[in-house]
Amino acid sequence: MIEFERVFKRYPNGREALHDVSLQIEAGEFVFLTGRSGAGKSSLLKLIALLERPTRGQLIVNGQDTGRLPRRAIPAYRRRLGIVFQDHQLLMDRPIYDNVALPLVVSDTRFRDIDKRVRAALDQVGLLGRERVLPAELSIGEQQRVGIARAVVAKPTVLIADEPTGNLDHALARDVMNLFQRFQEVGVTVVIATHDLALVQELGHREVHIDDGRVIV
Amino acid sequence: MISPITYLMRHVLAFLGALGRLMRRPLGTLLTTFVIALALALPTGLWLLVKNARIATGGLAETVELAVYLRTDVSLPSAEALAERTRKRAGVESVILVSADDALKEFREYAGFGDAIDALGRNPLPHLLRVRPALEEADPVSVAALQRDLSAWPEVESIRYDSAWLQRLEALFAVLQALFQALAVVFSLGVLAVIGNAVRLEIASRRAEIEVTKLVGGSDAFIRRPFLYSGLLYGVVGGVLAMLMLSALGWVLEGPVAALSLEYGSRYNLAGLHPEEAGLLLIASGALGLIGAWVGAARQLKAIDPQP
Predict the structure, then answer these.
(1) 8 Å CB contact between B132 and B93
(2) How many whole angstroms separate alpha carbon B94 and alpha carbon B54?
(3) Judged by CB atoms within 8 Å, which residues 189-218 of B form the interface with A?
(4) A109 and A165 belong to one structural domain
(5) Is residue A85 pLDDT above 70, yes or no?
(6) Of the candidates B209, B305, B307, which has its C-beta nearest A91's C-beta?
(7) Within this chain, do residues A163 and A189 fall inside the same structural domain, yes or no?
(8) 3-class SS of residue B154
(9) Quick one: which of A30, A102, A210, B200 could link to A35 by a disulfide (CB 3.0–4.6 Å)?
(10) Residue B233 φ/ψ, nearest 5 degrees
(11) Structural domain harbouring A210
(12) Number of Cβ pairs < 8 A linking chain A and chain B
């Protein structure tokens, strides 16, 4: 469960990204964050990933008050979270196998488990058999799938994605969304920021609209 | 809970990763390691110099000796009697009587003053007693007491006792020792700076990888680990290279030193580093590498915050 309680976020340059946001996302829910570019969707996701901290207010994730989390506890917190980025953030000089394995390598996963889980994750995104390929040899849609495989390989309870279909055409975007739906079906909480309203309509999940840093109900 | 085997594997991987990255840029690694080796070899070389000088002069320091010159009118039999009397004195290890004739012969043979001595017509040299104090009595106070006693004898003309040069030698060693310590500190700081900088460059070139690793939850310790191994490798390899440099130097100096010691009538072999000294050098250089990497990495790694 993710709970924002009267959260404000103001950046050092003075811009207020989030204004008095209160929001509750239940465990296992599938939620779309919609709104124009710069409305505050990314800021909200960054707060969940602890890439940013709230200026004011409280953010509770899985019963944990993130404001009380010291800096050194952040890595362990992030290991329980799957994050998908619009620009995928892959290591371009490493085969996709290494990219997907990274979250397991940084955690305390045993080596014989790593191989099994990397292959399972690649299988889920339809890239099994191409482990040794470099990201640059893949299409943009496939690169995004590698990013998703990396996000889910450590079996997170929460999966967040910032414009995961931003660079994809409708058919590919639909494929990627289906993938996210399958993770939700097995109990993962999914939060996706997107401005692809057609897709949001099509899939019919809960939509949280953000405008100018405020949640519009 | 992480199992010990998994933990060990993490370290092996971090080590191999660091090794691989250093090998992939052979020239840069070689230059850095060479600078580190030089910085380690200089103070270590000075240490070896002091050590060898101590060994080479060690034999001299033990031969504290009073040269007791008798008056020229003392006859050989009374000189022999005096020698016997001195031998019986407490605190005397041995007495060697160098008669005026022996001294003259020696002088003639070694010094090449033959013609000059012939011109004198008679032997101008006195009898000499070479008195060596017992080792336990060789401290300056006891030797001074012995010297005072002997010089009170009417047959004794003068006593020469060269202790000053020994003390000067000892003082010189102390200066060199202090110089070694100062150099060791300065060059250690240099090694720290070189390794810290090398690690900073390595971090800068792998910034993207570090950011992504932080994004997926890599802890500071995990991210720092390969860089610490880089530093350790730099230090240890630099230490080994420093020892090789010193061995090469020893090999070059071997011939000249042998020739020099032969001039002094002995055969001196250069002393190198003992195994335990070599081990200490490697531990110290490895520790410098670790500390340098830690210092170089700490702030920079903290400054890299993932901003997707």
Answers:
(1) yes
(2) 25
(3) 208-209, 211-218
(4) no
(5) yes
(6) B209
(7) yes
(8) coil
(9) A210
(10) -65, -45
(11) 2-80+156-216
(12) 61
User: For residue B61, is pLDDT > 70?
Assistant: no
> At B216, phi and psi to the nearest 5?
-90, 10
- The confidence score (pLDDT) of residue B18 equals 87
- Write out chain B residues lying below 8 Å of A49, CB-based: 215
- Residue that is last in its domain, among A114, A129, A151: A151
Q: Which CATH number fits domain B66-160: 3.40.50.2300, 1.10.8.60, 3.30.70.3040, 3.90.1150.10?
A: 3.30.70.3040
How does pLDDT run across B69-107, given as a tens digit for each residue?
998 888 888 888 888 988 888 778 888 888 888 888 877
Pairing relationship of beta strands A206-211 and A30-34 according to DSSP bridges: parallel
Strand boundaries in B136-290, DSSP class E = 156-161
- Indicate the residue of A76, A83, A108 with minimum beta-carbon distance to B6: A108
Q: Distance between CA atoms of A197 and A186, rounded to whole angstroms?
A: 25
| A75 and A130 share one domain | no
Give A-chain residues touching B213 at CB under 8 angstroms: 102, 106
Question: Could you tell me how many residues make up chain A?
Answer: 217
Domain end: A110, A130, A151, which one? A151
| Beta partners for residue A206, in sequence order | A31
CA dist B217 and B215 (Å) reads 5
Residue A189 has pLDDT above 70, yes or no: yes
Contact criterion met (CB below 8 Å) for A100 and A176? no
Greater confidence, B141 or B188? B188
Is A131 among the domain residues? yes
Question: Residues A60, A110: one domain?
Answer: no
Cα A133 from Cα A129, distance rounded (Å): 9
pTM: 0.75
Give the residue from chain B lying closest to A73, CA to CA: B219
Q: Is the dihedral of CA B282, B284, B289, B294 positive or negative?
A: positive
Tokens of B210: 């570090």
Nearest beta carbon to residue B308 from set A80, A85, A107: A85
Residue B143 to residue B163: CA distance in whole angstroms: 10
Q: Which of A77, A106, A110 sits opposite B222 (nearest CB)?
A: A106
Does residue A44 sit in the same domain as residue A108? no
Contacts of B214 in chain A (CB under 8 A): 75, 78
Place of tokens 């017509």: B121
Domains: count for chain A:
2
A28 CB burial (10 A radius; 0-12, 13-18, 19+): middle
Does residue A76 sit in the same domain as residue A173?
Answer: yes
Both A65 and A161 in a single domain? Answer: yes
The C-alpha atoms of residue B166 and residue B174 are separated, in whole angstroms, by 12
**What distances in angstroms separate CA B190 from CA A83, A97, B182, B184, B197, one per listed residue?**
43, 41, 12, 10, 11
The per-residue pLDDT for B272 is 86
Tokens 């399972």: give the residue.
Answer: A120
SS3 A50: coil
- Beta-carbon contacts of B6 under 8 Å, excluding residues fewer than 6 positions away, are A108, A109, A110, A111
